[in-house]
Structure formats: C-alpha cells, structure tokens
Amino acid sequence: MTSLMLKPVSQDPYPAFTLACHRDAWRIDHGSDAGFDERQTRAWLHALARQRPHGLLHLCHHLCPIGQLALAPVMVHQDGSRRGHIHLIYLVPQWRGRGLGCWLLAQALQRIRAAGCTSASLRCLSANLAAERFCLRQGWRKEGLPDAEGQLLITPLPPLPSHHPHLSA
Q: pTM of the predicted model, to two decimals?
C-alpha cells in the first residue's frame, strides 16, 4: 500500500470530490439523494476541516483521491470519558472490496487511540446493513436502540504503550 496516502483536507484541492463522497454516502444510507442538503454538508465539512484539521482526510492513490475519512479523534463526554467518533469511512465504488475499508478503519482507530481515547463510536443507518455487518465483524458492539441517527456502535480501545515508535498521529 505504499502508493496510498491519507492527506488532510484542510486546503481542499478536490472540493467536488469531498462533496461527492458525502452525497454518495447519503444515497447509500437513505436509498436516494432525497433530503441531501448540499449547503448544510458544505458548512459541516468546512467546520470540520477548520476545527479538526486532521479530522477530514482524503485517501489518495498516486495523489488521486479514492476515499475519505471523517472523524472526531476525541470527544469528552459529561462523565469525563474520552471517546473518538468516526463520521464517515468512504471509498469510491471501484476501490471497494480490496481491504481498504479495514485499512481506513484501522487508521481512524489509531488516530483516536493516539488522542488518548479509551473507546470509539460510529453510527450506521438501518439502510446500510453492509456497514453495520462490517463493523460487527470487526468486533464493534451495538449500544442502545437505533434512533433517527442510526444504530450507535462502540468499540473499546486498549491504551497505547507509553512510547510507540511506529505510530504517527
């Protein structure tokens, strides 16, 4: 995978690609484009890129974007616990089924763990059974009942060793 690289989208050279990823993910989650709000999505993407510069990343193959990872590496909850949240793992259709979803998930969890979190979460809408099955196969567990935002899935993260020479945040 030496030709693959995750690049922050802080100065997005591919704004149409970034939006297209979210539009297609919406289509997968909801069955159609109906209800996709481009203006709201652009505003959310802009805020994420500004507030968490390493929370919105493109997966590039030879500098060409083929996927996207959106995450909040650390969120502090009312009880003081720290949990990272994955908003989106996306690959363009021709790159699916090659193990890159597992690789992107591992990259997200590495960043969340490096931020000092003890668990990670994500949500899967009921229409996206493939995503939910993928996460459950990776050891995630359901938390509570599904709601309008989907099924919350959680995975615990073991702490990192005090110094880990191969980890880069």
A: 0.85
